[in-house]
Write a structure and sequence with these properties.
With about 325 residues, chain A is mostly helical. Chain A is about 45% helix and about 0% strand. The chains are: A mainly alpha (about 325), B mainly beta (about 425). Chains A and B meet through helix 1, helix 2, helix 11 and helix 13 of A and strand 6, helix 1 and helix 2 of B. Chain B: It comes from Cebus imitator.
Chain lengths: ~325, ~425
Amino acid sequence: MEFKLEAHRIVSISLGKIYNSRVQRGGIKLHKNLLVSLVLRSARQVYLSDPCPGLYLAGPAGTPAPPPQQPGEPAAGPPAGWGEPPPPAARASWPETEPQPERSAVSEAPRVGDAVPAATVTGVGDVPQGGEADAAEAAWNRVDGPRQAAAGEAEDPAGGWGVFPLGSRAARRPCGCPLGGQDPPGTPAATPRAACCCAPRPAEDEPPAPPAVCPRKRGAAGVGGGPASCPAPGSTPLKKPRRNLEQPASGGEDDDAEEMETGNVANLISIFGSSFSGLLRKSPGGGREEEEGEESGPEAAEPGQICCDKPVLRDMNPWSTAIVAF
Amino acid sequence: TLTDIISTVEFNHTGELLATGDKGGRVVIFQREQESKNQIHRRGEYNVYSTFQSHEPEFDYLKSLEIEEKINKIRWLPQQNAAYFLLSTNDKTVKLWKVSERDKRPEGYNLKDEEGRLRDPATITTLRVPVLRPMDLMVEATPRRVFANAHTYHINSISVNSDYETYMSADDLRINLWNFEITNQSFNIVDIKPANMEELTEVITAAEFHPHHCNTFVYSSSKGTIRLCDMRASALCDRHTKFFEEPEDPSNRSFFSEIISSISDVKFSHSGRYIMTRDYLTVKVWDLNMENRPIETYQVHDYLRSKLCSLYENDCIFDKFECVWNGSDSVIMTGSYNNFFRMFDRNTKRDVTLEASRENSKPRAILKPRKVCVGGKRRKDEISVDSLDFSKKILHTAWHPSENIIAVAATNNLYIFQDKVN
């Protein structure tokens, strides 16, 4: 358990560093960001693998649904160690066992950036509105680009999770996989989304090279293309998250606040940790690695250039919106 | 002030000059005063010889990026005439500076008066030949070449080739070969940028030419490996000739294993037979003829191994320490925290920790060895790990090419220590 807390704290610190690197003088330092991403990946593996009693991160044993692919991770069923889903009480207990220490750990860790602590403290209540929501959503999708595309098996229910913007956290499990539907907190794990096998990836080393991406699907979905662009059955809630983003969190989501804080970090872990490019990539659509365009690599990972397809985002740092939205 | 922080230190090939670069883009050159016959026992001291602004902050409008003026590296060219030449680089641009003395000035112009004002030609009735008269010594630095726009990523190293005609500059992903005379093009000799940046796993951290073989160079990576390349093998040296890597010790695995294995500096020995690498906790000496492990490993500050998480939090784990050989390759030196620096004698296997601080740096004072206490009981002169000041770090040091004179940069102070005269 302590490893998990430690890992969580390291993840938070790492995210803070990544965020701050974007505003540092002299441009993004490729070397430092690469090292931070490696730490993030290691911490994420521990974070997602450290089994906790009562921690509900996987579906029932033997669930056939393929896991949402982290890029480069070989497909595998739930590993040994993930047993039956805990009863609802246990599930509800997961946030209770962790939130206090985690919240304090998370909020104190990134001293440098006030974005992350603000994020954890504000939790659900500060869901970004309007344009910000779109920004966050679009940024989220963009961030998730390579992973999602890399997921060969996009058909699995969680495969569409990459499409879900931040507001969907109400509908997501801590590991980031979308829930099958509108689940009030405490709902037992009987729903199909129990097949969240994204967590049990820990023992295997992620090969650093994700397969080729198809950004277009994500991009469209990110802009709100809706279910049409996502074949996954889990795509139904697509519209719901968008609405959530645009409204202040309803009371019904408050109960999830505690869970969401860690859940959001888990989401960020999956996205940031999956591939280094998630940190530095340009826009997923046209901004693919052109010879000259890509030359700018890290330097191009600037607000104005990443969000080229969203005029509203021109002034906004997508990473800060992604983090603040939490 | 922040801009005074010294970012590089380098002796020239004779040791007569010592150059420092700082975060504000300035270069300060010290010159060793000639030992006078009258004061045989007074070793030559270093005094300021020249100061100039090498780089200015720039703004890349296309990428909306500010380019820092901090001098990352200075490398001297061997002296070939009365003037001195050095290369200085920031993140993006390398410049060749000529530092020359002027101790005479022409007097007796016909068309100008003594103040330089033009004379009315109608008033000139005689002609004279201008003569050179002595003047107060003036040292002037002029930029002779500017090598720009060749690096997308941040330059971390420059190295002058032993042919004295070319040099290389290395950034995170590429190494370029330049001719001193040609500024509008460079030759790319190493490119480790993956086609898909998502596959990026390592970057170049340092590079250096072999001291004698102009076709050979090495570069180190963030993964703790060193590659030796031979430019005769192919134009693009993406395939190494030798690959130096030590297998990781699995018992030391932690979240930060990758960070602490990243090599921050690589230096050839003067003999050309060995290379020395510095990673976060150790200095290693490698024999060029043995690729699978170093021949020597020295622990610089192993007591930090249990503190890596805190050092990660405060960014200290990303500090890039340099390492240097002494003139005979028998002693190696590198910096640490709390203004400590360490020397390792390769022959006797003895090591010493010294401190660069004002208190113990009175002239002629002998540096007292320092010790960091790891366990519970702290002796009188020891300092405990938790008392170390991590803001006082010695990243840059230099060793005179032939004598036991060292230059140690402690934040914005430069310390020069000499071996005591017997």
